[in-house]
Structures are given as C-alpha cells and as structure tokens.
Write a structure and sequence with these properties.
67% helix
Length: 198
Amino acid sequence: MPTLALPEYRSLVVKKEPIKEPTALTSLIDLSHLLPKLLPRLWAFALRITRDRSDAENLVRLTCIRALNRKHQLQPGMSPLNWMYSILHTIWINKAHMHPELELADTDWKDSCPDTAFEPTDDDREARELGRKIVHAVDQLPDAQRIVLLLVMIEGVSYREAATILDVPVSVIENRLSKARRAVAIQLATQPKLQNEG
C-alpha cells in the first residue's frame, strides 16, 4: 500500500489557526458557511482515528451530512467544532462495532505521520526517529486512550470538552489520558531503536 502523502495534514498540526466560530448555529446557512472552516480539523482528526484516507473521507462526509440534518441539536454555548467531533466520534464508534475488522486495517500511516507532527530538517535523524517512536507508541494504545490523547494533546480541547465530545465524565478523560501518557512513556523507554528508512 502506498505511503500517504498529506501536506494538508502537516500544515494543520504545525500551524493550527484558531477557528472563529459562533457560539451556536441557528440556521442551515450558518452551518453551511462554517463547515468549510471546520473541514480541515475534522479531516485531520478523522485521519488520525481511522488511519486510512478513504475511511477518513467517508467519516467526514457522513459527519457533515448528519450535522446538516441535525443542526437543531447544536445548543447555545456549544462549540460547533466540538459538536462535530462528537458526531464524528459517534459515527466512527458505531461503524467500528458494526465492522470489527476496521480495527485490523494496517496502513503506512505510521511511516508518514512523524513528518506531519513536526518538521525536522533532513539532517535531524534523532528527531525523525523520536517521531516514529511516538507515533508507534500512540498507535499501540487502546482506541479509547488513543482518542482521548489525540483530542487533548493534538486537537487542544480541554478535559471538559473531551468529556462532552465523548459523552463520558471528566474523571474518565483524566483516567484514560493518564494511562495513555504512562503507556507512551513506557513504550518510549523500552522500544528498540527503529530503522531509519532513507
């Protein structure tokens, strides 16, 4: 399977621009104007949790359709981006339960992701290797821990926002994040040196 080349994914992580979003959407026109601004962040999150470009595209498409059909559910004071993350996560969880083989999908995501997390110079082999180790360690996490880690550490949502997105108590977010950080630290301490390709 070819390695995913994702320059747009790289720019999302390296220079994440804040999204100016209204506190609530009241009409289809508001949502249709806001969606283009949310799509890059939704796409990046979908790609991280599915690890597959095609699955991520389908997931974002289904998320947008559901959001447009349920725009009335966005409450005043609710972040539209977090609301969309919640929809995306729910669709993904439901799909994974209906198709357990989706968890077994393996792609070359691991090899392309270190370049998306930061931009080391070509001479900076140690940084590249550390990036590969981190991606490998995160990839080994159970989905529940991996998603919390991605939401809080990569997407920058608060514990409370992550709890709302995932529909769990804040204590569950804290617990999963603590376990994820511990597991990643152990993986980094015990991983053998990864081969540097090229």
